[in-house]
Sequence to fold (368 residues):
Amino acid sequence: MPTITAPRRPRLPGRPLLDLLAWPHGIDRYLELLDPRWTSREVRARVTAVRSQTPDTVTVTLRPNDAWTGFEAGQFVRLTVEVDGVRRTRCYSPANSAAGRDGLIELTAKVHDHGMVSPRLRDLRPGTVVALSPAEGAFTLPAERPAELVLVSGGSGITPLLSMLRTLADEGHRGSVTLLHYSLDARHVLYRHELAALTRGLPGVRIVHAYTDQDHGADLHGCFEPDHLRAAAPRYAEAEIYVCGPNPLIDAVRDLLQAEGRSDHLHVEQFAPPLPAPVLDPDAIDGDLVFVRSGSRAANTGATLLDQAEAAGLTPDSGCRMGICHTCTTRKVSGATRDLRTGELHTAPDCDIQLCVNVPVGDVELLV
Fold:
């Protein structure tokens, strides 16, 4: 029987010429009719597998199109899926090796029962096409790999650090690498088999498991404390230390290194939970929001600019909703806003702000 192969993405001449010929929609609109991954400049990816490693996580494997240019171990991507007809975006770090040659991307996320996006990842099926951003972030290893590395992770925060481990393994790294990983118990350890394989393949790698809910089968028990780091990596004072996980874990490691005067050796990736709703004096909430492009106006409720825009029926671009990915960055035409992370008041006109982490103070005009 003849061999059936997948259709190849057509070779395209110059983009400006094609867009002119395909006016008013642009060439991507027509390519999508043939294959949703065929776009000339946007990163798209087809789901190839979906699995659950632990009761509260989902792992999605993707094959990106030709617009994907790769990533460095530790970076993150913005994954966009459609939820109830609205495109929703979240940040995830690839867990696979940056030096891998299979062309796949592996993302693992903790599933929040009441989350907007993470529960939908479990419903993805092979063949589904999603949108990706190019890789972003500075949480990466230096080009000259350190001789001593300590990686500390909690839960799904292991993904960028596992990518580092896998990349080092592919490079044949011979330095000392310790991974101290925190999980609730043995059932919640992500990538257990892969981690064991890494210790067999790399003589300089040591994996230390800490369980916060039970001590059976763990190397260490309880939440992070200085003695854990000393037990896992006695030479940590000579190492570059990379941390990714829940805020309390990151804060505890940071406090230890600050006390020891070694903060310059600490590297952090912090995917914090969404900010709580600001607690404001109702009598202090005043003014109106004016959305210039849409011509809408709404009374200020004290919520974030993003929440108020959506409540007004608008759909500005947004992603992480916690000030990390900058997808919701928008031009503020006039007025004052307060950054919920720092408390800083921004009064300058015609400046860019992040809608998800700013609240209006009085009248504000936005280019939405």
Remarks:
- The longest strand covers residues 329-339.
